[in-house]
Amino acid sequence: MRRLWYHGKVDTMVPGKDRQQAIGVEDGTIVFVGSDRDALALPWDEKTDLEGRQVLPGFHDTHMHLLLYALFQDSLPLAGVPSIQEMIRRGRDKLAQTGASYLLGMGWNQETLAEERMPTRADLDQISREVPVCLLRCCAHVAACNTPMLERLKTLTGVEESVLEKVDFEQGLLREEAMRLYMQVVPPLSDEEVKSLTRRGQADANAKGLTCVHSDDLQVLPGMDPVRLVRLFREMEQDGELTLRVYEQCLLAPSDFERFLSVRSDPQDRESLFRTGPRKLLQDGSLGTRTALLREGYQDDPEWKGMAIYTPSELEQLVEAAHTARMDVAVHVIGDGALEQLCQAVEAVQARDPWPQARHGAVHAQITDAALLARMKALGLQAYIQPIFIEEDMGIITQRVGEKRARECYNWRSMLELGLAVSGGSDCPVEPFDVLDNLRAAVTRQDRAGERTYLPEQALSLEEGLSLFTSRAAWASRDEEVRGRLMPGMQGDLVILDGDLFAVSPQELPKVPVFETVLAGKTVFAKKI
Per the confidence metrics, is the pTM higher than 0.85? Predict the structure, then answer.
């Protein structure tokens, strides 16, 4: 099947290459990029007049949670909820509507709640004293539970003491690893339910122009064994049900790692829609909950430096296990203390067992300084950043770390100028997987209302911002030779926009609609006209 799109504005993301007019794909591979005149002189099975629309490489999101997003679409969405009382009202209404045996929700942020505090067990008991309720904070590093949920948690067996220590039974708050305990209370999902969640999540992603996501899914669904989930993804691909490339960031219990290697994808595979990628690790928490690990104390709590998930030696061992298997690691590090520990671990592991081709990375890498960035560069560590995070964090960053350190946070331009490998993601459902809104944040360094600006000197150009979600994102998954740019021989993944990003103001970028999304030459989303 030979398909041609012509009379468009084709931005190839190839440095130095001018905007083209037409692009053609045959059997999933790009075979033509050039002028309308040359394109229309060739034989095609299908031709589409773009009527001046913009074409870009299909968008990538290099850190998100596809199945967690889909799971919470059917539960209780709480993004932007103004108060705890409103959370209670919505929770009651949801249970009245569904009659469910449990209630999950996500999205609250104590910084924006009228009560200016986290919800507690007493609050959530007002939703129900019979049905277990667990409502995750927007960062997914803290959850609030009611009494029935906490009582169920007390009956769980085999939970490590270090995890139970992060449960505040009096207040009803679960922190970090303990947050995932709700999955041992909620009934496990069937194979078909998991596939249904995948279909929903990928359809929504396609509608935003996404053709590839680096997704952390292995520890988000109740009763899910990681090997089973890999099997389900592969079944969907074999049955022609995947419309999205999924590069799995593999968050695993240490005890599951060796077993998981038996189902790991071939590291040389560049064709499969589902592939296992780096080992995902968590080393600290979030800035909003004060669990990000800092080298110096928090500005508003000088005696507190945050929370490390692993000791430095434990982190080094976990990194080494992946490194020895020639598997990259992608480690959640928000605080400079956590980033420093990651650098130390990678440095030690590389000294014992050099692997020049490693593409280990820091997920978030928010709080840094010049020396840490230089150390990342020397170690070849890539940065998976989320520009959209400044929407919420610009309001608390100075309060958390002080004015001096705040000037060394979210330093994206400094990263690029230093030559770091940097890619962009959303951490959805922490934030929506809207690439164009993420792009707006990267280019403007402003909030959505355009009222606040944070370190404008660290803003990126539009071309640089786009590269985070196209060419640089392809590098993050070792796919720079097959994706992320539009040129013959590359995989035919495209996003067609009903407008031109270069012709609108940066604040208007999210308003440019996605017109069509193409995966390997096949349309997986088309705007209704």
Answer: yes
